[in-house]
Amino acid sequence: MTQPNNIVVIGAGIVGTSIAVNLLQYGSKITLIDKDTQTNGASRLSFAWINAAGKTPFDYHDLNRRSMEMWPRYGQSLGTNVGLKLGGTVTWETSDDRATALIQKVERAQSYGYPIRLASQSELQIHEPNLVIENVKAASICEIEGQVEPPRVIQAAIDKIIESGGEVSLGESFESFEFDDTNHQIVGVKTNNRTLPCDVVVIAAGIDTTEIGYKANTFLPQSTSPGVVVKTSPMPPLLNGIVYAPSLEEYGREVHMKQLIDGTFVIGEGEQSSKNTDDSIDNARRLVEFATQYLPQLGDAEPRVEPIGYRPMPLDGFPAVGFVKETPNAYMAVTHSGVTLAPLIGELASIEITHGVSTPQLDAFRPNRFNQDGTGGRKDSPSHTDDNGQGIH
Ligand SMILES: Cc1cc2nc3c(=O)[nH]c(=O)nc-3n(C[C@H](O)[C@H](O)[C@H](O)COP(=O)(O)OP(=O)(O)OC[C@H]3O[C@@H](n4cnc5c(N)ncnc54)[C@H](O)[C@@H]3O)c2cc1C
Questions:
Q1: pLDDT tens-digit readout, 30-80
Q2: Å from CA of 113 to ligand 1 middle
Q3: 278 near 252, Cβ under 8 Å?
Q4: Which residues pair with 10 in a beta bridge?
Q5: pLDDT band, residue 272 (cuts 50/70/90)
């Protein structure tokens, strides 16, 4: 394969920008477009927890683990503070059945070689002194997990692409592809205002990847997975890392929270990617009140509503990354847990695109595993999809 001269990347979320930034080092001309000026996809509305503890089977867990380890290097390469903090995750349970499930999760992660451990109530309290932690039946600490702030990551990556001579065009929308005479090779990307010549096109358009894929004659089925996180007014520093606290009868599902570098709290509920479509102020108030049961200082925080975020979610729940066979110069990258996975996907995709190799880490996650009728896909399912088709990060 000859190295491509012109590469067009569609989608400036955390995945598309990571691929574009990684591509810079190989000398191709990079053009990154996004239909939004604020890049309002899943990345901005994410809880953005960098994690692998609950992820199965092993190959999917390992993909996430490798990417977690790459975050410090990726964050540093962007040359600015992107809110990366590997402050650990604390979790506890107060009911017998949930405690058993937590212990099993910890044991399985340990069998993968993952440094998570069961902990006592007092250990948790030392890790997060401001939390109210009571009636613990089981608890765990994972020191290597953490968080990042996708809007900062995306902006830093965009700045770097521009500084390095690439083009970034926000507010420019993909419309169609121009094919060569064989109808298999894309030669141009038509947008709302021009046609961009290209040797390779990267489709990293989140939930819209399916529709754009159709226009490249390929089919990548996705399920719909809405989620809501709530933010607050900035607060003084109160948390060291990510907190997963148990459900309470009057509030329902468990609550998770973290604090951003400007003091803002980000709060979600349920099994991390449980489906949620309530973006009302009443729901925001309820969630902050719920979190306040565990962190009383949050009582002074003002809730802020965030729109519903739609997680990119290939139908079997696993990432879909690679060239597609119907159109061999179209490269697709669509995944849940894209915040955790962005550094690894960016690095591997850029090598595959420019050098024509096929990296083994991605072999089990290729887009062409689905049939045209939506069947196919992997027969196992990742642990971030529960029996109701709901997922976690
Ligand atoms: C509520 C919620 C919680 C989450 N929590 C976590 C978590 O804790 N940890 C984790 O790792 N992951 C989490 N995720 C998942 C993670 O946020 C996503 O996997 C990740 O953001 C996907 O990034 P992306 O770049 O692929 O997609 P996106 O961020 O959606 O970016 C795609 C971009 O493509 C652009 N686009 C679409 N169509 C076009 C077009 N026609 N022309 C030009 N541009 C186009 C869009 O405008 C968008 O900016 C969560 C997601 C949600 C919604």
A1: 999 999 998 779 999 999 999 999 999 999 999 999 999 999 999 999 999
A2: 29
A3: no
A4: 33, 203
A5: very low
Contact 332, 321 (CB under 8 A): yes
CB-based contacts of 146, cutoff 8 Å, min separation 6 = 49, 50, 68, 71, 84, 85, 86, 87, 88, 89, 241, 242
- Ligand 1 contact via 39 beta carbon (within 6 Å): yes
String of b and e for 283-298 (b: at least 16 CB within 10 Å)?
A: bbebbbebbbebbeeb
Q: Is the CB of 202 under 6 A from ligand 1?
A: no
Residue with CA closest to ligand 1 atom 25: 13
Residue type, 208: D
Q: Compute the distance between CA of residue 257 and CA of residue 26 in angstroms, rounded to an integer.
A: 39
Asked whether 71 lines ligand 1 (CB < 6 A), one says: no
Q: Which residues does residue 117 pair with via DSSP β-bridges, in sequence order?
A: 141
Task: Quote the crossing angle between the two packed helices 338-355 and 14-23, to the nearest 10°.
Answer: 30
The CATH architecture to which 1-84+146-225+311-393 belongs is 3-Layer(bba) Sandwich (3.50)
Model-level pTM? 0.96
Distance 76 CA to ligand 1 centre (A): 22
Distance CA 101, CA 62 (A): 21
Residue extents of the structural domains in the chain: 1-84+146-225+311-393, 85-145+226-308
Question: What strands, in cross-sheet order, belong to the sheet with 242-245?
Answer: 116-118, 138-142, 89-93, 242-245, 255-259, 265-269, 230-232, 303-304
- Determine the Cα–Cα distance for residues 320 and 114; give it in Å rounded to an integer: 24
CATH, range 85-145+226-308: 3.30.9.10
Tell me the per-residue pLDDT of 110-125, one tens digit each, with 9 for 90 and over: 999 999 999 999 999 9
